[in-house]
Amino acid sequence: MQDRVLPLEGIHNFRDYGGYQARGGTLRKGVLWRSGQHVGATEADLETVQGLGIGTVIDLRGDSERAAYPCLRHPEFGAAVVFEPGETASLKGAAVHEEMAREVVSERDAVNAMTALYERLPFRPVLAGTYRLYLRTLAENDHPTLLHCLAGKDRTGVAAALVHTLLGVHHDDIVADYVLTNTAGDAEARIAAGATAVRSGFGARMEDGAVRVLMGVRPEFLETAFAAIRQQYGSVEAYAEQLLGAGPDAVRAMEANLVA
């Protein structure tokens, strides 16, 4: 799994989420990329990313996050950047895991908060709007894409798992890709940076275990999101069609572009 990860200096959690067995073949490698934000990218990082030939960036952050953490770009960057205007987190300028840090002290508090977040995450209007653009991009293009939010783990994790599910990737592979966040790249540096952010914003009383929950992912979080999708829409396919505008024709187009 670590072979999927690009060892960049200033961009956390940058990795390929293709290469898995899917319905009718294998997801192409080198066309499905995911990461956190790029505000700390080094020149070497930008050279590496530019070399991937990315044609579209899907930015799952809200407007205030983009203003607070503007992504650095290579001088020759020419990709389209797509997003639904508005806020995808309820706390302006913060990632969704940070909005859940209020009143969290213990590890159990953090688990409960993140579970509550994932119950609602797939239905947030602005986020769903960007998910719609994401699926449309994959259906209409066969060039490499980059999917990211602030930390590249929650909004991005649900989005990647959604595409994996629609394309028939095995559940075990979906979960393995999701939890790779916990070990991808310099995870300890990412956790340390996150600890500073959540403690400065929400109090120094937060236990180390709680910080690790907020800055990581657990399989039960993803399971909670997809259980909520199935409860509300009956199936992931119905959710994609009814809320995100990606019906069977769009899924077949995604398969044609992504499965070999």
Automatic annotation (TrEMBL):
Pfam families: Y_phosphatase3. InterPro entries: Prot-tyrosine_phosphatase-like (IPR029021), Tyr/Ser_Pase_IphP-type (IPR026893), Tyr_Pase_AS (IPR016130). GO terms for molecular function: phosphoprotein phosphatase activity. SUPFAM superfamilies: (Phosphotyrosine protein) phosphatases II. Belongs to the protein-tyrosine phosphatase family. This is Tyrosine-protein phosphatase.
